[in-house]
Structures are given as C-alpha cells and as structure tokens.
Amino acid sequence: MTIRLGSVAMAVLLAGCGGPKAYVREGFSEHPPKRVAVLPFVITYPYDQDAGVVRPESHTIGRDVLRKTFYYAFTPYGYDDVPLADVDAALASGWGPVDSNGWSSASPQALGQALGADALIYGDISRLMHFSTPLYTETSLQASLRMVDAATGDVLWKQSVKAAERGGALLKKGQVVDFVKDQVRSLNPSVKFLRISDMAAERGLKGMPNPPMELGAAPVRSAMSGRRLAVLPLATKRPQWQKASNKLRTYLAASLQGTPFTILEINRVDAAMRDVGWTEGQPLPEGAPLAAAAERLGADTLLRGTVTTWGRSYWVLASQVKVELLLELIDAETGEVVWSQQHKNTRQAGLLKGPTGYKSLVTAPITGLKTSNLERVGNHLARSMVQELAESPAVLTYVHEPLASTASAP
After folding, report:
1. pLDDT tens across 137-175, in order?
2. At CA 229, angle to CA 195 and CA 239, rounded to 5?
3. 25-205: which CATH topology?
4. pTM for the full model?
5. What is residue 199's three-state secondary structure?
6. Domain 228-400: assigned CATH number
7. Computed over its alpha carbons, how large is the radius of gyration of the chain?
C-alpha cells in the first residue's frame, strides 16, 4: 500500500539550495540581445608547467562537457544561438586553434563581428576534479559564467555555479547498489562530468532572463540546413503534471541538439502555437492546426508527446520515483508518424537496493524521494529516448530523404 508523506516531510524533500543569486543588468529584459554565441570555456587554474604539473585529460573532458551541456540547456531559451561548431570554426579562422586561446585576447567587439552575435557567453572554470578510489570518489567543478554585450563589452548577466558528486566507502553510502554503480561510473570521467554538468547548467540558468521570441517570418530553407524540428508542448494525463511536462520538454529540446535535426527554439515554437489557439500552460487544443503552425515556423518535423506518469511512491522501507513518456515524431507536411515510442524510467531506494545498516534502511527511502532524483530520472529518460530516436532506422532514412522544398534546388 502506498503511503503519502506528511506535509512537513514533503516540504523538506522539496526544499533545495538556492545558491548565489544571478546578476542581471538593469533593463536587460527590455532590450535583450537577439543572437548569442557560447564561447569555448577556459580553465583558469594555473598549472605549473615548470614543476611538471600538466593538465589532466579529465580536466579537458570536464571543460568541454560543461560547455556543451550548458549550450544544450541554453538553446531552448528565447535567443538565436550560434551553433558551437560555427563558433569554433570562426574562432579558429580568425585567431588560430581554439585550444591555443588566441581568441581570448580579442575584444568583445571583434568576437561579436566574427561570430555575427549580439552577445557572448564566457565560461571561466576555476575548479575541476575527478578522483576515484574504492574508498573515496569525487567529481566536482566550479565556474563563473557571464553574458557580455558584444558592442559595448558590458556584462549583461553573471552567475557562479558549482556542482559535485562524491561517493566511496568512506562516505558510508546507504545503498549497496548505488555504491557499486557509482564505482563503475567513476572510471569514466565523461559520465561523471555529464552528471554534474547537468546540475551546474540548471542552477546557472535559473537566473538567466528568458525573453519572449517573436515568430517573425519562416527562415529561408536550404538543402544544407537539414530538417527543422519543433518540440511541441507536451500533453499530460493529469493537470498537476504540467510543470513537470515543461521541464521534460526542455530536456528533450536539449538532448535533441546532438541529432541530425535543427532544433527550433521553444519560445519561437510557443509563439506559433499561440497563433493557432494554444494557451501557455495548457495542453494543445483538440484539432489544433499543427500544419499551419509548422509552416509559419518553417518546421519540417514535429515532436509531440504525453507525460503518462510522473510521481513518487513510498512504502516505509522502500520508495520509488517514476517517469513515463510517450513520444511521436511526425512529418509536418504529411502528418505521417515517422517514429513512436513509450518508455518509463524508475529509481528505487531502500530495501531493494541493499541498505548498509538499520539507519540507512529508514532514511534511504525518504531521501530517494527528493525532487532532484525525480528530475534526474526524467532527464535520463528524455536523453535515452532521444538517443533511440536518433538511432532508429526509420528516422535515419527520413532525415536523409530530400526535402520537398529543396529537392529542385540547384
């Protein structure tokens, strides 16, 4: 039988660490930049080359994973973002290899002109650690992020972030299964840095202004741009899951950045959906003219879905968080469903995971219900479903078919 947590206990679970408040320049929201480039992140730790202290490979991995994760989380916001590959190519063309940091001595004005950007995001990483032994493991980072006006050099937004994941026998982890999984993950710095970069990016963007984006004219299509994908607002089986569906939608949009599709900004999609009768915070109306919205967006493909499960269960000695999602990839012109899947992801805590003592037998089920665990399960589900979508033979065939609008292009 499922037991509901008391209001006091639930309040404790939902409470989180707010972290430092972001700096936002006065008047930012009235005149936000339109096109933003995320520059390569820089490690500011002074390695002592004379003493033979060289940068560990794990630090380079952590730096690059943090930048990519931040960029993916930033792309759903109401800015036109410059693809990372385009940023790196322009910097290399103007200032030499990106890792040589020649570009870092250039003025914001020069960088903005080279990148065609109104604003630039810098990332200075002051701490990176990846340490793994059976007794103690730690992967951590600390960074300062800032958005700079490319024309004036003024700081528009600034936020400090830090994130860490620690484990090992010395910390007396309460779950044997979690301890074993943590030890395995610790062998791969990419996996560990991805986990903490997710946390750092989410915390950093909490204070980032998210300006509304006007729909404007549909972008000019070209054979080189590939298929443009719009992630539609997700439906929910229960109205109280609406906030969760918004978060899952941003997870999907972020994860899709690594696929062959060009992902349209969520704010731009929302502007088109409002034009066809959708009210923000509500499910899509029945019979909404999606084809008309797609045409206005210049979208070739739509991703729609339903949150079928989002919640927690508690059984005194065990608990579970679970997320289930149904997704459909649809051709905007024909309405054909190219790919469809429904999957769930769960995380247990307590008896089933082998508590290491009587104390953890009681506390593990409660700590397992944290909102952060539920969101992590949702993020992992979104990422795994997008990977399945991207690897589907039907989708691979679809993305390589010539677009009707560009089939006759020279």
Report:
1. 889 999 999 999 999 999 999 999 999 987 765 554 555
2. 70
3. Rossmann fold (3.40.50)
4. 0.76
5. helix
6. 3.40.50.10610
7. 23
